[in-house]
Amino acid sequence: MTGIPTTRAQEILSTLVDCVRPGRDLPVLLVAACAANVPVSGAGLALMTDTGPGAILAVSDGPARVMEELQASLGEGPCVDASDSGHMVLQPDLAVTAPERWPEFAAGALSVSIGAVFAFPLHVGAIRLGVLDLYRDSVGGLDDDELAEALAFADAATAVLLSLQATAGPSAMHPLLSTSVADRAEVHQATGMIAEQADVSLLDALALLRGRAFATDRGIADLAGDVLKRLLNFTDDGDDGRGPH
């Protein structure tokens, strides 16, 4: 993605700006609009750095959220490969192609019935900004029109990220971006701690953290903070993440 919006991307941005309200920021609106206009089950927008996933900026609920968190915690998957290569990663049948390429990611994707993933890198020259991920609960690729629409949303997403950073000035980070980065870092660290405490894989550790968050009706980033502060641990045998110690 070049950072210069196409005509269709400009239309998308114009529509989104008209819909912005308090509590409804552009990244969230963009992800929702993308999932509604491209035949997919969900979408996610992730910030990326030279060392890997930086933060989940916006994501649909359900399996798409699981996949975004999983790629960020594992450091593997279509999102990571798209950012590293600067090229689209189109996987129309994950059950066939993913197990050998991304073993742990594949296991997580298949466990929540994700059949296909399409990842679009958001780059401006050599600068990595993020990745727009599209998830489908059935197998099958995007046809030419659907791919063009997805690419237009990727161009719009690039423009949104550039705009957010521009408003923060050259030596700072927009609060929305910095908060997301901080939350993502805590979830990543907490997942590693849980994996060690419970002697499980990172995939299972993330599932434990998500299960506890769901059971206690708390945000996963908030719960991760408790793990890092050692207010919460997962050392009990058989802990399913659904209750306090």
Brief summary of the model shown:
This protein is an alpha+beta fold and 245 residues long. It is built from ten helices and five strands, in the order ααββααβααββαααα. The chain has helices at residues 7-19, 26-37, 63-74, 78-85, 94-101, 103-111, 144-166, 175-198, 202-216, 220-228; strands spanning 42-49, 52-59, 89-91, 116-124, 127-136.
**Count of distinct structural domains:** 2
Please name the CATH topology of the largest domain: Beta-Lactamase
Strand arrangement, largest sheet? 2-1-5-4-3
Q: Unreliable stretches, pLDDT < 50, 5 or more residues? A: 168-181, 237-245
Structural class: alpha+beta
Mean residue pLDDT: 81
Number of H- or I-type helical stretches: 10
Report the CATH architecture of the largest domain: 2-Layer Sandwich
Q: Could you state the CATH homologous superfamily of the largest domain?
A: GAF domain
Q: What percentage of the residues does DSSP assign to strands (E)?
A: 15-25%
CATH class of the largest domain: Alpha Beta
Cα-to-Cα separation, first versus last residue? 47 Å
H and E order: HHEEHHEHHEEHHHH
Major β-sheet profile: 5 strands, antiparallel
Backbone CA Rg: 18 Å
Helix content, binned percent:
40-55%
Anisotropy-based shape = globular
Describe the structure.
The protein is α+β, with helices and mostly antiparallel strands and 245 residues long. It has 2 domains: 7-166, Beta-Lactamase; 175-228, Arc Repressor Mutant, subunit A (Orthogonal Bundle), CATH 1.10.10. The protein contains 10 helices and 5 strands, in the order ααββααβααββαααα. The chain has helices at residues 7-19, 26-37, 63-74, 78-85, 94-101, 103-111, 144-166, 175-198, 202-216, 220-228; strands at residues 42-49, 52-59, 89-91, 116-124, 127-136. It has a 5-stranded antiparallel β-sheet with strand order 2-1-5-4-3, sandwiched between helices. β1 and β2 (52-59) form a beta hairpin. The radius of gyration is 18 Å and the shape is globular.
